[in-house]
Amino acid sequence: MNRLELLKKHFGYESFKNGQESIIDHLLLKRDVLAIMPTGGGKSLCYQLPALMVSGLSIVVSPLIALMKDQVDGLNENGISATYINSSLSSGEISKRLQGIRQGAYQLIYVAPERLLTDQFLNLCRSNEIAFVAVDEAHCISQWGHDFRPSYRDIPQFIKALPVRPVVAAFTATATPYVIEEIKNLLALVEPFELTTGFDRPNLHYRVVKPTDKYRYVRDYLKGSFTEGSGVIYCATRKVVESLSLKLREHGFSAEAYHAGMDNASRSKVQESFMMDQTAIIVATNAFGMGIDK
């Protein structure tokens, strides 16, 4: 099948969004890529679709557990064999998925950066053909980025440890010129195809307010403007997430907390409830990714 046929069959789209086709073309030509695309701009399809057209495994490095689960669930529903490896899984479940990778059960593997250099995963990748490595949220590799993750510094070491260097594609929604240069240098991108599709999101409205009583403001907003539908309220700390979600429930709102301090089963339960429209509001730290497809 060609790209458009795969796009229609697995993703249900008739055409590509701005920039997607160019990125996919260069990945298929085995050229490194650096793409800066806004959330909702279709970054994930830029590595999901090529994974169907290349031989070998395609690896996606992602820092967001909730986003990994959401995307893998969606891919499997669309007939694409994908899995993920991260800290939400038990050791037994990880071993089962690694065995599946050995047996060729998956085309696309999502992995947390902390797992890249574990003996099991690295040895498995060394014994398989790796078509490309896609680095999502690539700004996390830069100490000047807004969401620095030290484990992202393991990515270049992982790539160097492979017998054959795969194509490397870096994706982020936002990065300053300095961070862009850091991404290119730290990931050692080789003459990458670079594309910025812009930052404007016409479907988003930005407004800054400074209420004297934050909780009253949130409560009044939900009562006045948020009568149906679903949404995410982001908070800076786990403590605020817990207290705000509790207050909202006490005032009759369908709200649940989500943060990295919760156990894996609780986080999964909350995410499933939100996706199935059983919970209307998620109160979360940035552990809950904005790219959740809802």
Outline the secondary-structure elements:
Blueprint lengths: L2 H9 L8 H9 L4 E4 L6 H6 L8 E5 L3 H13 L4 E4 L5 H12 L5 E4 L7 H8 L3 E6 L18 H8 L5 E6 L4 H10 L6 E4 L17 H11 L6 E4 L3 H13 L4 E4 L5 H12 L5 E4 L10
Which characteristics define this entry?
alpha/beta; seven-stranded parallel sheet; 11 helices; globular
Structure description:
By secondary structure, this protein is α/β, with parallel strands linked by helices. The chain is built from 11 helices and 10 strands. The longest helix has 13 residues, at 65-77. The two termini are 29 Å apart. The model has no long low-confidence stretch (mean pLDDT 91).
Outline the low-pLDDT stretches. none
Distance between the termini: 29 Å
- What share of residues are in beta strands? 15-25%
Question: Which structural category fits the helices and strands?
Answer: alpha/beta
Described by strand count, sense and barrel closure, the largest sheet is: 7 strands, parallel
What is the residue-averaged pLDDT? Answer: 91
Tell how many strands the DSSP assignment holds: 10
Tally of DSSP helical segments: 11
- Major β-sheet strand ordering: 3-4-2-5-6-1-7
Rg (C-alpha, Å): 20 Å
The rough form would be described as globular
Please estimate the helix content.
25-40%
In short:
About 40% of the residues lie in helices and about 15% in strands. The protein is built from 11 helices and 10 strands.
